[in-house]
Fold this sequence. Notes:
By secondary structure, the chain is α+β, with helices and mostly antiparallel strands. 43% of the residues lie in helices and 21% in strands.
Amino acid sequence: MANIDENYFNPDEGIKQNQVEDILEEGETILQRLKPDRTDYILEAIFKGLPIALLWAAFDTFAIIMMFSSGAFAEMGGWMALFIIGFFGLHLIPVWLYVGGIIKRVAGYKNIEYVITDKRIIIRSGLIGIDFRYFYYSAIQSVTVKVGLWDRLFKVGDLYLTATNQAAVLEDIKNPYFFGTKIEKVVQDIKADISYPNDLRPEENHGYNTKYKG
């Protein structure tokens, strides 16, 4: 247990709270740093909702063009014209959400990082502020690898982590099967160490043949 004194809860002025190194526990070691494949990560956002966005925009564009060409828009009063503009502005919300999703994806890419340490998996993300999510190996319930048709083109895949009260996806990472297998092995070793009878929890577990020494 850490030594708790009057300085324990005093923040270090040198810590910016936006880098993974700033939140590491004492003795925690970074083993691997991963980022999504940039091209696949952005193209997925573009093509995922593209058909719906195009159809929605085409329908509204056609309606607006027909109103202008028929002279109906010119015959409307000022307030009615503003109402129609506002109506189509709201009606195009799915398109705005689609465009906003792409912008958010592109702008937030630089802040995304998946960090594997000897104690947990840290997910760093955010657009304006930086968010950190932690997945301790002992709390992880399942590790699933999914590689879609689009992912195969870029030789990447998604790693799904399910923990006690949360879930997350490590998106578009290289060698997804390799990292999925390695993480699953660590999770199983740690759970075996915790649940299998041993010599009153010594530094090294003699009750189960595990290679994990964390």
